[in-house]
Specification:
334 residues, alpha+beta, 6-stranded antiparallel barrel, 12 strands, 43% helix
Length: 334
């Protein structure tokens, strides 16, 4: 009798353990098969502008640092460009020469004027010879596909300009010898206008050695250091317009349902507090390149899904919002 009771107890314990194992396995199976909540996470982006110079030179002073708030038109960079200064002097000298030739055309030629015209002609000839050699070298490099067509065209334009200058100088010399005619006086006047326009053009480059901020914004990056050389068009600073911000999300196409242009979405920004919710309006949806395609992991029963970039602008200004902050979509409003 006692053995029978012990056997019954053992059977009940075993049955209880079996039931417990079944329950545990069932709970684990339910948890693993339960659909996981999909989180659509993006980030904040802002309009960024690069401050760069049209002329090469050396940085002499940086008047703003990373993190500084600047206003539109504020001076932020000073550049020393000997090339620009030289071009200004050259243009001024050309203007003076053109004015002198114009005066000579309107009065009888003296021996010193004739000699001066001859020297200007010889100078122009030397310039055209140098320009021809430069053009020949660049043309050879272009034929070898070493330089671009634009560079070849620029050197060609300089050569043509040098030839024109030589012809003008020769005409001025001939005029000094033979006396100025009406046409010669008109040409001399035109040369003065051309020289003055060259001076005005070169002086515009002086503005490019004093760089200003194009917008009201915040300096986010400063690339070179004081004393470093910068090339033409090389970025020197980045300034971000924090009044022109948006959210960007990479969304798989099967999750795009209801997320149309013009729709309003609710989102959270963890950096600004988990309890706060904000709204934004979708204004841009575009498919991304093939590298962003989600590849199917099964031979059948699944498909490759494209990824779309979705952008949305805040419906109202969000205090403390900064570029790079994470944003999580919580709801798409109908």
């Amino acid at each position: 009798m006692k053995k029978l009771q012990q056997s019954t107890i053992s059977l009940l314990v075993g049955l209880g353990a079996l039931i417990l194992v079944i329950v545990v396995l069932g709970v684990i199976g339910w948890l693993t098969s339960k659909p996981q909540k999909i989180i659509l996470q993006g980030e904040v982006e802002a309009r960024e502008y690069r401050i760069s110079s049209k002329v090469p030179g050396r940085i002499t002073q940086l008047l703003a640092e990373e993190g500084d708030t600047v206003s539109k038109g504020q001076l932020v960079v000073l550049i020393d460009s000997p090339e620009v200064q030289a071009k200004v002097k050259q243009a001024n000298a050309g203007s003076m020469a053109a004015n002198a030739q114009n005066q000579k055309a309107n009065q009888s030629a003296r021996s010193e004027l004739v000699q001066g015209a001859y020297e200007m002609w010889q100078k122009a000839r030397v310039g055209s010879d140098i320009a021809l050699k430069s053009y020949t070298r660049v043309q050879n490099l272009y034929n070898q596909e070493v330089v671009s067509a634009q560079k070849r065209d620029e050197v060609r334009a300089q050569y043509d300009a040098a030839l024109a200058t030589e012809k003008a100088a020769k005409s001025q010399y001939d005029m000094a010898i033979h006396g100025a005619q009406k046409e010669d006086r008109e040409m001399a006047k035109a040369q003065v206008e051309v020289a003055n326009s060259n001076v005005a053009e070169v002086k515009t480059y002086l503005d490019e050695i004093n760089l200003t901020s194009p917008i009201d914004g915040e300096i986010t990056e400063v690339f070179p250091k004081v004393g470093e050389l910068v090339g033409q068009g090389a970025p020197i600073m980045s300034v971000v317009d924090m009044n022109d911000v948006w959210f960007t999300f990479n969304v798989r196409e099967d999750l795009l349902q209801g997320m149309d242009i013009g729709k309003t979405i609710k989102l959270k920004i963890p950096a600004l507090g988990e309890s706060k919710e904000f709204t934004a309006k979708v204004y841009f949806i575009n498919v991304m390149a093939s590298y962003a395609t989600w590849k199917a992991t099964k031979v059948s029963g699944n498909f490759d899904a494209k990824t779309f970039e979705v952008r949305a602008r805040p419906t109202e200004k969000i205090k403390g919002l900064r570029s790079g902050m994470s944003a999580i979509i919580t709801e798409v409003l109908k």
